[in-house]
């Protein structure tokens, strides 16, 4: 699919008068339309709810947009739970799917009534001892082995640190029931960034069949099944996006085939999508500030891997558009690089792009999820601002850029950095 930015050169120039590059910018209209498509696709399920994976884009303004579209939140840590609490989510609209969880986080999750999704059998006793067993509780399943769709290996759950085994999860529900739990959920996340309409339906079938088995063997009726994240997006132009409408329809087919005949036709379907909800609706905007002609042709930009880590850590492809040159021939081969003293700090390697001039705006696509949020401060680099392109076309800042003062704040106790702004 052709990749087009949601923002024009004209708009970028206008923004430049107020907000310097680099920045992440999000497209409110795109976010809302996509959330509506998801909710529509699963509207056949009475209890359906998307719990947006906060870690993908932990910004209160973004969460509020999704909240208005009916989404809850999936938190993975104390600070994410705090954010959800401050934004006045009901406990039932907060999922707490964490692993290797510290006791204080369980205590806090219980306090705000979040639904706890336990990652291990031993966490049942751990939770009992630190916070008590709540009425509603969920367990995370890991079937081990490899996860296949048809004959394609999608991912390797046998190697993943998450979740309970088949036998543990059955014992887990028995134990939770004995300890007084009343409402039970099941969760599983078996493959990441899948670009196929088959992922959710295949996962759903596994979980639905397990729910039937749990009913028989543990005497526990599962109330909600959380398909978690993993529905992906096409980062490269050669891929076609997932069709959420087809995905919803196929999950319904499996639901009708497996759950309904087993008397489990009331099960609510939950999702915890992050990437699918936000990635395409965010851009990292950066300016070309250097060109270097050595053994290769380099374009140096004012963003770096501290603003977007995925290319550096996964070798991930992010499409780049040179704003205003959308129709120019891609007849120059560049490495597009940031300033970190790390040779992996490259947004693109041997990428064919139009001729880039100094001052050109480069739009790096699909940074709306796992973009800003994975940022860090290596080399003393500072996190950028986050902007929101609103539905009416105006732009507002939804997080300011870090300043040197922020960077020095955690060792400010000596007083010698007090005058830094
Ligand atoms: C990261 C994560 C998600 C979101 O994953 P995406 O790939 O962004 O959809 C959902 N649930 C859990 C438990 C996660 O760790």
Automatic annotation (TrEMBL):
GO terms for molecular function: diaminopimelate decarboxylase activity. The keyword Lyase applies. The active site is at residue 341. InterPro entries: Ala_racemase/Decarboxylase_C, DAP_deCOOHase_LysA, De-COase2_N, Orn/DAP/Arg_de-COase, PLP-binding_barrel. Residues 31-278 form the Orn/DAP/Arg decarboxylase 2 N-terminal domain. It holds the Pfam family Orn_Arg_deC_N. Its cofactor is pyridoxal 5'-phosphate. SUPFAM superfamilies: Alanine racemase C-terminal domain-like, PLP-binding barrel. Keywords: Decarboxylase, Lyase, Pyridoxal phosphate. GO terms for biological process: lysine biosynthetic process via diaminopimelate. The modification N6-(pyridoxal phosphate)lysine is found at residue 55. This is Diaminopimelate decarboxylase. It comes from Eubacterium uniforme.
């Amino acid at each position: 699919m052709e990749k087009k930015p949601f923002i024009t050169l004209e708009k970028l120039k206008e923004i430049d008068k107020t907000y310097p590059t680099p920045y992440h910018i999000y497209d409110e209209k795109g976010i809302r339309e996509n959330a509506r498509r998801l909710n529509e696709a699963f509207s056949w399920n009475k209890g359906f709810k998307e719990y947006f994976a906060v870690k993908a884009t932990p910004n209160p303004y973004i969460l509020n947009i999704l909240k208005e579209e009916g989404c809850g939140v999936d938190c993975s840590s104390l600070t994410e739970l705090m954010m959800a609490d401050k934004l006045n989510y009901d406990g039932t609209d907060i999922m707490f799917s964490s692993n290797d969880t510290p006791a204080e986080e369980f205590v806090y999750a219980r306090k705000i009534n979040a639904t706890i999704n336990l990652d291990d059998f031993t966490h049942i006793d751990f939770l009992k001892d630190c916070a008590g067993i709540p009425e509603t509780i969920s367990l995370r399943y890991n079937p081990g082995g490899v996860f296949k769709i048809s004959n394609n290996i999608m991912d390797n759950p046998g190697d993943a640190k998450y979740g309970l085994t088949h036998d543990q999860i059955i014992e887990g529900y028995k134990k939770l029931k004995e300890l007084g739990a009343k409402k039970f959920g099941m969760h599983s996340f078996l493959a990441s960034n899948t670009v196929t309409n088959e992922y959710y339906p295949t996962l759903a079938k596994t979980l639905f069949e397990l729910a039937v088995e749990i009913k028989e063997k543990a005497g526990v009726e599962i109330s909600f099944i959380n398909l978690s994240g993993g529905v992906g997006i096409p980062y490269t132009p050669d891929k076609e996006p997932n069709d959420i409408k087809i995905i919803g329809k196929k999950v319904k087919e499996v639901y009708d085939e497996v759950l309904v005949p087993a008397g489990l036709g009331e099960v609510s379907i939950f999702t915890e999508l992050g990437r699918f909800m936000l990635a395409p609706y965010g851009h990292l905007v950066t300016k070309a500030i250097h060109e270097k002609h050595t053994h290769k042709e380099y374009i140096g930009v004012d963003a770096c891997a501290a603003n977007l880590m995925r290319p550096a850590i996964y070798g991930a492809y992010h499409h780049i558009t040179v704003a205003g040159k959308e129709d120019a021939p891609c007849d120059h081969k560049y490495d597009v690089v940031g300033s970190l003293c790390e040779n992996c700090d490259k947004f693109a390697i041997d990428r064919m792009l139009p001729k880039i001039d100094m001052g050109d705006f480069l739009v790096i696509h699909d940074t709306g999820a796992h973009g800003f949020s994975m940022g860090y401060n290596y080399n003393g680099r500072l996190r950028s601002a986050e902007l929101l392109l609103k539905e009416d076309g105006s732009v507002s800042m939804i997080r300011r850029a870090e300043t040197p003062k922020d960077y020095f704040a955690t060792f400010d106790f000596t007083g010698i950095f007090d005058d830094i702004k």
